[in-house]
Write a structure and sequence with these properties.
Four copies of one chain form a homotetramer.
Chain A (H helix, E strand, L loop, with lengths): L3 H8 L4 H19 L4 H5 L3 E6 L4 E8 L12 H20 L5 E10 L6 E12 L3 E9 L5 E11 L2
Antiparallel strand pairs in A: 1-2, 2-4, 3-6, 4-5, 5-6
Chain lengths: 159, 159, 159, 159
């Protein structure tokens, strides 16, 4: 077990950028104390932007930061998928109410362009709302409206 | 910009478990200074276990920890997918050499059972190795051999 | 080898509905002599309805007939997929010109509702048009506008 | 409505190969009178080769014929998918008994190599057998053992 003093020791040789990274992680950790979001979702600065009635889609955002990138300095495809999965899960809550829990059955993601910086937007549409299965599709765009990824997913409603 | 002193201030009211979480993150951050892995992959304790010649699969492992879980205390499906994507990407490196870079075109993941704790294993098989397209499949199991997820993916070789 | 006389013999005990089925097949076979469509596509009465500029989609139709159904008297899911694959392939031709041939890399199809009778419509959108990879999505609806299936597909351009 | 005489008239100008094609279609139609298979499945000469206990897979075969090909004289990808869908549906029957009907929720198919002639083999494995959802994977090979396609599918058990 690491003590508080040990942790402070560990922080001694962090450089400026690493200090900022750890600070963001501490902030996310504190938010997750009271947030319905998971820690990883807080780290992504995941947020809901409500329902776009005109388009019929639920809108979400996340912030691309250094610690979420792959070795090529692009957003890690796994994090893009985490964004999509979280957007779909949140849509189930918003569209069908919090008393029904649903789990992801499967996801199919096409990665169309790399994401480098700034905020991403996910727009999620309910394609089918069955008694047991909910089918959704999500499109992820960057700040310039460029399409980053498109995905479909099946969610399973627990009784 | 947060200063080192500001960060230390922020750490004052972390509880025991949060101290451990931040410590793990600092460790992962330090490893990522010299590691070919992305930070998020270090956070997952991603590692390669070599090629299983008998089965014809490349083997990888990751550790399920609290900060990688969703609100239901199961491994976040997005992190499972990050594990799979990283395993497939590493397989391209191991199977075809580091001079060829490849990017994920698409992933299709079926989530079969929740993962709760301990090490997960990913076994990745190259299904097709074309000049441009590499098709792989990955199966993720937990410590008890239970199948957690199965996935297929297309990777695109950059020239 | 069956002779013409042998075939006529075989037709003796067909009932009324079977006569109609074979007649449709003969018609499709004759159309396929001069058609750029495959025989199976002629059997489905596949046709292009042009480009819907307002929606940005290419529109196609097919006719659900008895011989294309499964044992439950619904359109066979494999035929729905044949419709989708043909619509995507035709879209490549229309959008990028006939000098470029493209082959299907993968298809992901969600079956949302059974199709029973009448004409189906497929609307295909080009989601990404890369130098090598074309990503499309197709939605299939029935005469009442009910969503039957939704699909995404990757096509690979041959040089 | 076409009469028997009208049909015979229509057959007058068929060439040798077309006569053979129509003959195969009449045969398939007659088999489908008593067969649990759909007409399109009979046209593919779909058949079950039983359970391979050693590999843990259900084995099926189909015959590639001219009328199932696309305009490039390769097996139409939609027919490959029809083969896969039928193999998965038959596996549900064999593995779980005929009293439970199941429908295809989604299919994900990777087309790996073109199929030209002869018999194809589909090997289907049950990956997950839930109370409601059955996940399967199917690999299609040709006579030379070359991998033609690999697929995963979710089936939904009707109560």
């Amino acid at each position: 077990m690491m003590t508080r003093e040990g942790l402070l020791q560990e922080l001694q040789d962090l450089n400026e950028q690493e200090i900022q990274t750890i600070y963001k992680m501490v902030q996310a950790l504190k938010r997750s104390r009271v947030s319905p979001l998971a820690y990883i979702e807080e780290l992504m600065n995941f947020r809901s932007d409500g329902y776009d009635e005109k388009e019929g889609v639920y809108v979400y955002r996340m912030l691309v930061t250094e610690e979420l990138k792959n070795r090529y300095k692009m957003l890690h495809g796994g994090i893009t998928t985490t964004f999509i999965d979280t957007a779909m899960g949140s849509t189930v809550f918003q569209a069908f109410g919090i008393e029904r829990r649903a789990v992801t059955l499967d996801l199919n993601v096409h990665f169309l362009a790399p994401a480098q910086d700034g905020w991403l937007t996910a727009r999620t549409r309910v394609v089918k709302s069955g008694r047991t299965i909910i089918v959704m599709e999500t499109k992820v765009t960057d700040d310039n409206g460029k399409l980053i990824a498109t995905a479909t997913g099946d969610f399973f409603r627990l009784a």
